[in-house]
Amino acid sequence: MENNKKILVVDDEIKIAEVIKAYLEREGYVVCTAYNGCDAIRLFKESHPSLIILDLMLPDISGEEICRLIRVNSNVPIIMLTAKVQEEDILNGFGLGSDDYVTKPFSPKQLVARVNAVIKRAEGSSLVVNQDIISVNDGDLIIDIVKHEVRKKGEVIYLTPTEFKLLLVFVKNQNRAFTRAELIDKSMNEYLDVYDRVIDSHIKNLRQKIEDNSKEPRYILTVHGIGYKFGGE
Asked: Which residues form the Response regulatory domain (predicted)?
């Protein structure tokens, strides 16, 4: 089958990249590969992929730096694929804006399942909404469900698919307090076994993007002893 969605696979181990490519192509994706950071950045600009699978330990530019560069002006889904398995490495990956984190060694079939889940979440295909555009605080925040676009004071801000899904969970359940576990269940990959602190990383990033002052938030509020809730109207 052919779904025309393009995946960029970045890994300096050619055999691993080729295995991933083969499994994704079997699923119907169009796949391009890069074996170093420079080629990864070039191909990202040229091919406009629907998702990036990104190794962190590359010979020239680190995967973390590539993620930072991409997140300046793009919300393309990123799955980090790495041998870095420490909790702090995983939290740092999500803090940089990745949407999933897969550690080596890995199952190619499970990686494909994660790709499918992240793309599905990015498209919002499993989300039931009652309106296409949500306005918060007299237009301070405008959320366009169809375009997957968020504007803050009229300016487009770039949210990752996970951040976008989190924001929708909050705005559609105003004043309801969610535990971290509930937020993981509602906004993240069903195949992902994550720490509760991962949600804190996503909340921190989301606050930096939508709040006037992330240290004194008015939208994403901490509910001590429980988790978080949305305070906008």
From this structure: 6-119
